[in-house]
Amino acid sequence: MRLSKPLRTLALGLGLVLASLSSGAAQEPPINIMTGSPTGTYIQFGRDMQNLMANCGQQMGVVESAGSLENFLGVRQRRQTQFGIVQNDVLEYMQTFAGQDPAVARTIRGVRIAFPLYDEEVHILGVKDIGSLADLAGRRVAIGTENSGTFLTSSLMLSLTGIEPAEKLTIGPQEALAALKAGDLDAFFYVTGAPAPIYADEDIDGDRFHLVPVADDTLRSVYTPTTLAAGTYPFQTEPVDLVAVKAVLMTFEYDMRGNAYHRAACDAVSDLSSLILTRLDDLREDGHPKWQQVDLEAIPPGWDISACVNRGISPDYVASCTAPEASPDSDANAAYRRNICAVMGC
Fold it and tell me: Where does the UniProt annotation place the signal sequence (predicted)?
């Protein structure tokens, strides 16, 4: 696959990104997950996992980020950051350049899969006269902030189809939506799992804007074809054909017999893995709707599962976290329970 100059430049600039991720904030907890913007699905998944750990007495920080590429690099380089949510096409991108650039090869060394997650749709919200992806040619299009998965996916899609917008703005979804409403933008890409809160905005006028369908055969062979059901968002009255990428929870291959930092990090990975596996039904019931689509067997090709994950999901693993003790019943509550049991049985 021939990639555009911006993507080749991005690969060569990974060292600069790594330098910026060399350490976390001083006050962060010892366990962290890198997610995405406040309006995306990643951060909601991060909070669901944060709640799992909190219920077992462990504090895990949820870190906002530019998105997938920064998250991948953060898992590799950022201290006390054991997890990051990443798009599958970012993984393919990193593998493509690993054979061409030693710096990229070093970057992916030691990064492992924790769990495959869900498909996230490529949303392209645009003005109504953009009827297809090809109509983005010659228009003003926002492609996501640099180091985000949206930036990578939108750049790949435009490169694969040969579409050249008149202007490509590297801004995030909230800024892009405001520019679209103001008439300063014609469309913007945002890769996120539906339903995404940003599109629940009642101010998105369905007479002016719509989700641009993706029917290009090349893209539908590279990505997963999907259909967004009518009514997923207030402005969207008809089903829309889109494409999707797989979101994946990444971690690092910590040495469970290594130094104190590696042992503690491996314990955190094992504990969260055990909780996700044993409480997946709870996540599907109480967490983000996308948990219902999580397929734990859909491992991306070419990537290995972490040894600490495999330890955590083994049948004999006992998590080092412990659930908070329940408060004892008051005398009144204890009497109530005895009476209920006497009548109904316990």
Answer: 1-25
According to the model, what pLDDT value does residue 328 have?
58
Q: What's the pTM? A: 0.78
- Look at residues 189, 156, 134, 152 and name the one whose alpha carbon lies nearest to residue 70: 152
Sign of CA dihedral 123, 129, 132, 134: negative
Structure tokens at 185: 């933008």
Q: Domains in the chain, ordered, with CATH? A: 5-119+246-312 (3.40.190.10), 120-245 (3.40.190.10)
Distances (CA, A) of 244 to 122, 134, 142, 198, 283: 6, 18, 18, 18, 22
Tell me, what's the pLDDT at 122? 96
Q: Which residue has the tokens 């109530």?
A: 336
Note the pLDDT tens digit of each residue in 292-338: 999 999 888 888 999 999 999 999 998 886 544 445 556 666 666 66
Calculate Rg over the CA atoms of the chain: 22
Residue 179 CB partners (closer than 8 Å, separation 6+):
142, 169, 171, 185, 188
